[in-house]
Design a protein that fits this description.
Blueprint lengths: L5 E6 L4 H11 L6 E7 L5 H8 L4 E3 L11 H13 L4 E4 L8 H6 L4 E5 L11 H8 L3 E8 L9 E8 L6 H24 L3 E4 L2 E4 L3
Parallel strand pairs: 1-2, 1-4, 2-3, 4-5
Antiparallel strand pairs: 5-6, 6-7, 8-9
Helix pairs in contact: 1-6
Bound molecules: glycinamide ribonucleotide.
The site of glycinamide ribonucleotide has 15 residues, from α1, β5 and α6.
Length: 207
């Protein structure tokens, strides 16, 4: 059996971050393989992108809640990821909060991308929150996932300017482009064991 680093990706949306990561895997920038792609949305773009790339992709019904997985769904997601023997769970626009059993199954091995410079503007439509607040610098954050919402130790951040003529859509687009740059770098660093965590602080080894 090969000991290639194995990534599982979870997403609910169009999957542009997944594409950035998959492209970085193909280019050898992330030394890993994408073992499975899972979604809680049957017609999510991320599943179509995965299938185009001939990667295993699966819809798992999320159950009765709107913002989290129910018990059966949580079990099904964990089982699929364990069966695929993933070393890292990458949340790429997965819009449900992960709870106890899921977090315990992959402790310290779940990462997420969020479209703001955390701890500012957690939650939904962060680019709109940033614009409404009047900040001059916005951006994105890659962080470890813990029991809080958008709250775990920060692995990397990338800033973008807020321009006078920005609309929520134009700012969102600029943040998205920054995400596509930042996320593959963070996943590559994790796969290469170049990052370490001490409490809330994450350190990058110089390579
Ligand atoms: C990304 O902007 C990501 O930061 C956000 O969803 C979008 C997914 O886009 N995630 C969250 O808001 C999680 N709190 P994509 O499907 O094109 O990668």
């Amino acid at each position: 059996m090969s000991n290639t680093f194995r990534i599982g990706v979870l997403g609910s949306g169009k999957g542009s971050n997944f594409v950035a990561i998959a492209d970085a895997v193909t280019a050898g920038i992330i030394p890993a393989e994408i073992a499975i792609v899972l979604s809680d949305v049957a017609d999510a773009g991320i599943l179509a992108h995965a299938r185009e790339r001939k990667l295993p992709a699966q819809f798992i019904t999320p159950g009765k809640f709107r913002t989290k997985l129910d018990e059966d769904a949580e079990r099904a997601f964990v089982a699929a990821l364990q069966q695929a023997r993933v070393d890292l769970v990458v949340l790429a626009g997965f819009m449900r909060v992960l709870k106890g059993d899921f977090l315990r199954a992959f402790e310290g091995r779940i990462v997420n991308i969020h479209p703001s410079l955390l701890p500012c503007f957690p939650g939904l439509q962060s680019w709109k929150q940033a614009l409404d607040h009047g900040v001059k610098i916005a951006g994105c954050t890659v962080h470890f996932v813990d029991a809080g919402v958008d709250a775990g130790p920060i692995i990397g951040q990338q800033s973008v300017p807020v321009l006078d003529n920005d609309t929520p859509e134009s700012l969102h687009q600029r943040i998205h482009a920054a995400e596509h740059d930042l996320y593959p770098k963070c996943v590559a660093a994790f796969a290469k064991k170049e990052i370490s965590v001490a409490g809330r602080r994450v350190f990058w080894k110089k390579s």
